Amino acid sequence: MLPALRARLLPKDDALSRFDDATAAVAILLRGEGAIEVLLTERATRESDPWSGQWSFPGGRRQAGESLFETACRETEEEIGLSPRGSDVVGCLPARSPGNRQKMIVLPFVFHWTGGGEPRPGPEVASTAWVSLAELPKTRTTTTIHIRGREFEMPAFVSGSRTIWGFTYRLLEDLLEVLPSELRA
Fold it and tell me: What global pTM score does this model have?
């Protein structure tokens, strides 16, 4: 599945070797055969979370002795109750750092989700949504984001009450850039 996308992503083993110094990983779960959807999570509101309330991908920090692939799988299982371990790893996007944590390097794994069941938000997640990749560019805009009492104009995908900005926005733009046109339908 998704051979055209696979050809445009970094192979998993190459990415693991190239970005071995990454400190965190996320799982980008894609589903569908024609029109492709991506799974997003709305983070629970928590004082200790620098991304509290934001839309994101399941993921988090690497634990001692854990591979980045294991990190992406463990975090997905903890956050939404789905295990991507048996799913096809289509490849990886290049690692990058969130704007508010420049020393954190995050490796995004792209999975073709074929598992059964729907996500079940755990304590770190308020809700989840499967979002059409074909519809996403139509929601691209600039919006005002409030951070610690200040306002910032940011590029974002805005649909109803869902505003995707920051690190997740950049990863989605990276994904859309490599997504073959036949998968955008």
Answer: 0.92
